[in-house]
Amino acid sequence: MKGRVLIIAGSDSGGGAGIQADIKAVTALGGYAATAVTAITVQNTLGVFGVHPIPLDIVRDQIRVVMEDIGADALKTGMLATVETVETVAEAIDAYATGVALVVDPVMIAKGGHPLLEARAQETVRSLMLPRAALVTPNAPEAEALTGLTVSDLDGQKRAAEKLLALGAAAALVKGGHVDGPMVRDVLATADGVMVFEAHRIETRATHGTGCTLASAIAAKLAQGEVIEESVRLAREYLLEAIRRAPGFGAGHGPLDHGWTTRERG
Q1: Which of 123, 133, 167, 172 could bridge 161 with an S-S bond, Cβ 3.0-4.6 Å?
Q2: pTM for the whole thing?
């Protein structure tokens, strides 16, 4: 086991996204996952039926005690939900995890359409989380919300990724799953330039938790010492295979097969 990842995010009672997907992804890639739960959601593959934020002092204390004892080689944030939670997490990172690489997945809307971040919190994510991010991983709608740019094609993805760097992120991965076309292209912008990763689109309803899974897989690889570009490449390979092997559970947006690597090793 190599690479400690502290995941700061909300739970998913259906097990396909959120903290549950994050733990599975990090574990499947050989890392160690610790957590600070920001909210408890009531959800399954059909949608989100309730969101219950965790008290702010408990969010902060989870981060504190993990960092004071276990430590972390990378951090990953997911669902933060409210302005106050974003502010608390930013303060706790500065207090207890300064210098640790942070992957920010700016979770805003669930697959079924339920908002997971207050509209007024978008500016707080922009001002507090982006400057702390080693990498931010928005999908096209999230990139539009953060940058104010239209992200409907590859050029839009590139412009948004570069704008996210200008807003303070050290690197930005603007994902292309929401962009029409037979190929899915993810655009990675760093100080060294822009890279495009592409793969044939997989026609499936098993898309629940793909964003959480990818961001946590990248964090696991960063925690294990890989550079950003290689972390993204390896995480995408893991995610694509998890989608291909999806178990078909549920009647809605189904979960992935996070554990496929453990069976391969066995």
Answers
A1: 172
A2: 0.96
